[in-house]
Queue: 2 jobs
Job 1
Amino acid sequence: MNAKRLIMTGNEAIARGAYEGGVTVGTAYPGTPSTEILENLALYEEVDCNWSPNEKTALEVAIGASMEGARVLAAMKHVGVNVAADPLLTLSYTGVGGGLVLVSADDPGMHSSQNEQDNRHYARFAKIPLLEPSDSQEAKDYVIAALEISEKFDTPVILRSTTRISHSRSTVIPGERKEHEVKGFKKNPAKYVMLPGFARLRHPLVEERLLALQEEAEKSPLNRIEQGSKEIGIVCSGVAYQYAREALPEASFLKLGFSHPLPKRKVREFAAMVEQIIVIEELDPFFEEQLLAMHLDVPVRGKELFGLLGELGAEIIREKILDQKVEPITVRDEIPGRPPVMCPGCSHRGVFYTLKKLKLNVMGDIGCYTLGALPPLESIDSCICMGASIGLALGMAKAKHDSAENTVAVIGDSTFLHSGITPLLDAVYNKAPITVMILDNSTTAMTGHQQHPGTGISLQGEPTPRVDLESLCSALGVKRVAEIDAFDLKELRGTIKDELEAKEPSVIIVRRPCVFLQSTFEAPPYVDREACTGCGTCIKLGCPALSLKEEKAKINNTICTSCGLCEQLCRFDAIKPAEEKAGDKIV
Amino acid sequence: MIKLSKTDILIAGVGGQGTILTGRIIAALAIAEGLDVKTAETHGMAQRGGSVITHVRIGEKVYSPLIPLADGDYLLSFEKLEALRWLPYLSPRGTVIVNTQELEPLPVLTGQTEYSTGILEEIESKAARLIAADALSIDPVSKNARMVNTFLLGILAQTMDFDKKKWLDVMEQTIKAKLVDINKQAFEAGWQFALKSG
């Protein structure tokens, strides 16, 4: 075996492909499962990488770099492409300078997402090519192919990954980097200035390009027929190919790597080789509908077998096509669930405890704090998309029902800077007396603690100007901006009540760094078992370090970070700071 | 013992316990042995103290990164309840290696439900082989609880077919330099534990 083989996640391989392909600029906003692409690309000193405040900006930065002639990669999760869709759809018209690859990391099964949209549709929508790797080696190679297609056909290219590509490891044979010369910007208004007059001239070029791309897809080695038995012909792409290949070793395959525009002649060639076609694809019938519209001479099935939801796997393919059912070991029905939870010492816990106690309607947002929707805190009433909390609260205020008076918007620092500023401006401009809580934990926590413009540190860990949230809100015209400590329950309760009564927009910035950013903690408090009545009030915090054992509260010393919330809650003074402890630890 | 064609290893645990690193070490070993390998990992939201699973598949040629239901040769679990939860992914001929530590999930901590009893008995009655270890009571894991993963890896390694030295070499390449020695000790402790369990 080749000694040079490395093992890489799909995300590492995408970064490697960008490096080898001569990319000099990388942009992204963090989002699972895409985050590690830019983190890995940033490790190559030849590539200038930056976190953008959101995906739209990330793609715009990528477009600018491409116009200068640089090869560039922008990475985002599937819903991030929605944010970047505005520049993307017109980028299709302008085309590129240097090669531009947009990585869309989709999340079938919603491991860490609010929906499971199928972003292959964006390629059709924008009339641009789509590449779908099925393992890490292809992830690397396809980035290089995408850069070449991008320049050859003057088009952005979508490279679509999914969770099982991005977060799977497989072998990769690395190659050398090929430098790409950046030639600088050449003025070309007819190409880059999409006034209606110019855009009308570009649209026909987009349609011609699509036909040329189809010809390219017909002969591309990324689309290949693997001839097996003629009884079943499988059409598939991405990780579904791997599932199907494992389940159906005898079948014939049309593996689509360059999957939009669809290579129709290749499909017909394949159809002539088999007795029936089964399309195996996760989520939407993207290929199936196109194949059905071609009126092939053989029957085409897909979604009637596999449905439209979630991920596939080898076992479901065996079951639906070969009628082979496995009989797994069965275990008891009642196994306690283990949902994700806010960490011990999480700065969000006290906020959601307080919001629940105040019985408020809470418009939530995207981040670790969305876990505030789960028991026992159960105090988030909506989660739609990045930044939606503020717009929703504003809309509720506009609907003028009494319940709006008991409504707050809750948004994290990174999410606020991503897309919370505009709706807050809207609230000020339209005089809506909403209360917005910015939960500032000084990081993008959920995706693994990335920097953002509010942290004052760049992706490379270098100091950079830090946006001051208080001044920012004031500049937007918010007159009432309070700053409070996330661990002070009394102040939290008092401030929220005060601001709800205000007749103008107000912002409460709730501060405490994410517990992950801290490495040393004070000694944990202890439970005075004499004083503890076992009332269970502290347990309602939903802290993994707290439990009720033999009708007394118990603190797990190994994970407690001494945030002090339980001490503040105890009416019987039974949770005492470490220094008050007399004799042996009781906990 | 390892099947030549393919070995499927499930690594179960609680977010933050280090299942991904263990998967990386096994994958690196497979590469060093000239085999094909794929893994699938849990990132993102579930990592916040949720139930997590890493799939590792080794063989001459591996297609799917996911281990199908009832296909696992090994279930390596860092926590007792998680071993039970993921048992349906193990083949009835498979081996369970479990750290008997109980980490109570939030619904248990808050008193909504109770931690399951009789877990080991149930696993023993359903899996072909069970190796259960109270890793936290065994040196050096007793001194450094983060060594649970390499301790369990030592058990797994002893029951597989690869050369012990290769495992140690791969650990040296995969683990941060200052942590290599203690990880090797934990691995050795696991190896010895497996020998004693027959």
Job 2
Amino acid sequence: MTEPILSVENLSVRIAGLHILQGVSFDVAPTGVTVLLGRNGVGKTTTLRAIVGLTPRNGEVRGTIRMGVQSLLARPTHRLVRDGLGYVPEDRCVFAGLTVAENLRLAERRGTAPAYDKVFALFPELDRRGRQRAGSLSGGQQQMLAIGRVLLNDNRLLLVDEPTKGLAPKVVTEVAEVLERVAESVPVLLVEQNLAVVRRLARDAVVLSAGKVAWTGNAQDLLLETALTKSLLGVGSGEVPVSPRSEPVLRAPQSRTKGGAA
Amino acid sequence: MSTVILLTLTGLGLAALYFLVASGLSLVFGLADVLNFAHGLFLGVGAYATWWAAGNLPGAGPEGFGFLVAVAFGVLAGALVAVLVELVLIRPLYSRTIEQVLVTVGLSLAGVALLQATWGADPRTFPRPGWTREVTSVLGANVPNAGLLLIVAAAVVLGALLAFLRFTRYGLIIRAGVENREMVTALGIDVRKAFTLVFALGGAAAALAGALGGVYFGTVSPGQGGSLLIFAFIVVVIGGMGSVVGSAYAAVAVGLLQQFVNYYGTSGLGDICVVGLLAVVLLLRPQGLAGKVAHA
Amino acid sequence: MTEVKSPEVPAPPAAVPDELAPGRARWHGLRPYLPLVALVVAVILPYSTVQLPGVFEGALNSPGNLQLLAICLVFGGLAAGYDLLFGRAGMLSFGHALYFAAGVYGTAILVTKAGLPLWQAGLLTVIGSTILAGLLGAVALRTTGIAFAMVTLAFAQVGAILVARNFGGLTGGEEGLTLDVSGLPSALVGVANTVNLYWLALAYLALVVFVVHRVSMSPTGRVLAGLRDDERRIGVLGLDPYRFKLVAFTLSGGLAAAGGVVYSLLVGASPHITSSELTLSLLVMVVLGGPGTRWGPVLGGILYMYLDHRLTAFGTSDAVNSLPAFLSHPLSQPLFVLGTVFILAVYFFPGGLASLRTRLHPVLTALRRR
């Protein structure tokens, strides 16, 4: 077994008195996509934000997070990012008032040449729409910008939070294709609710439940075991969920047609 | 007709003063979430430093180029004090908004008292070049030159700020940071450097307001900043926190409204109308005219 | 993001450190009676002729000292009432001076200009000011956080302008207003009767402490504490934050107006009490004392007003004057000293005076062990 790129040990996060994570431990493999799964509100986003140092002020983080030999906790976000931790947040978070070109320019760093060729090769649209305000882009285009922005620099690990949330089925496929290509060169820790996308991209899976790790292992194995998937995620792969609680998972009617391709 | 022109131009002069104070307040609030009660102190520091330099600094004086040097000294002093305040008092309380407000409240009390202790509570006569005491005839109205100077200075500062926000790397960081500070750090940028810069800019603009306000009023006193600050706050809220352009529009609206109503109505009624305007804007558009976006 | 946990009941009001501090049983038995003891001491204090050199000039019960003490008590009550907003409900209002000033000027105008008897003037003033607080609060509370602070600041500024411009010759402008003594009960007039004003101020303070205590222990108080900690959680529980905040705002405004009535008898009306600086000093008192605690704001208010008065004397004393100018000049400014102490308190004593005992506890135990 190769050394993990990221290892999280006994991570606990309390925010405003709520124990959101209660001793979470898992590793992220140095290649491919590791997916973080779980029902809504189990703390997937909280985990990503704790890794990148963005726990809110009233929150409290305990445990250890290591990237290689380096400990990540207690280091400011901008340093972590400069050391190669790329973060694509939930809801894109592009700067709506800035143009596409300005959004990208913001990610440039002194001393390193920004990889515009690579980004524009992946997303030709960003090149063409350089002067357009990011706020006027479609959801899919904003997601491309959010990913492209991070790819301008070299990364040792990418954290990607729900990249397909709220996107049209066709765009979901596009995003998945892009992430697949990205993952060839850099490991990705992905939070994703769309099981079709998970099936296509993920090699390893970590499932959270009630603030703890409920299952780890091979993602494809997990998806094959319908009963297990159902108990952990509240939905079988490709099935229409019955419980209203898990409604947000219902986002992939195309899963049958595209799912097995990977 | 000449009365209307006079009122318009003096109203714009007032607006210029408000804008110089409010633009810095607005950027500091928009970027760093700090409601800076000590901003009036920067104005006081600028006014007193200019006053001191005109009398004591070699090369500076109350006339011509010497006056320019004195004002530059005042602006520099204001910026320096603002940077020190940010580094020493605000930064250790990063993102603890209420504590930061409290510290600036304490600073505004202590700072004004310190000015008072050093230079006395009574107004001091401000050194001003001879030409600023004269009037210029504009379409039949005799407008004080000091007011015109304020308008020109505010216009230059507005242009310079917008160019800075539009064309520089730090301007870009500030505009992005006003929208979403967290995401700026998530792109590997140390946003706190931008905080210090914004404090410096705001301190410099407020200090300029202090110096030119001294020229306009003819005197300088420790409490001057405080009374201006309240109207500057109103301008910031009406204009939308974090928007320089919004502050400019709001400053013009507030200055003109105040001047005209105070002249045609009872004295003091204009000030009350301004608060009324604030209430109306807040009820209709809680985010202010321009919202929380730093426009370039 | 709400989590899978069961929805939590809003957190109880900030724990009073006193109750948590480990202490001896005897001490615990006495504790509930301490406020009563303090009250009795305060009531009989005017009979004392003790000399406290350096603390008070002359005998403790001299009219000058009693007036100073009465002012301190009024501000203790004001600070406790302001804490109902800031410490208990987390609302940062910068316009509290308005309601206090309404109480002061309302009484002075109704007694002096309208010739009403004091009790009618006082009652009308408190009712009117409470209604004013309700109306302005209803508008201001449509905003939250910093915007709320600025709106309340702006409203209070209108009050300051109205008073300063002396509309209709009612407020006396810069000069202020002194009460027309002919309209007042004789027991409240004259230097010899300062003691009665002192007792009145004490009664006001006791009233405020009682009301604030009752409110914060009531279900409404618990909702307010919940709002302070996390407004969204209260929204989730299906309660309307707006109504609770308006209740607190109105009540706090009414209490401030009542303090204004007492103050107008003690000092009279002068325009400086309308300034935003008064609100800022209330904030300083509460933070110095300990926001959200029962006695912290009271102590903070009393101490602040005492220091504000005494530091002026201290600043001109020989001890300060003999210092080099760069020290003696700033030290002669009470606000410089208080502002600096305040900044230090924000950094090093976030809980204010009320937390001092808990903070000192480890030090004391360590010392005792030696």
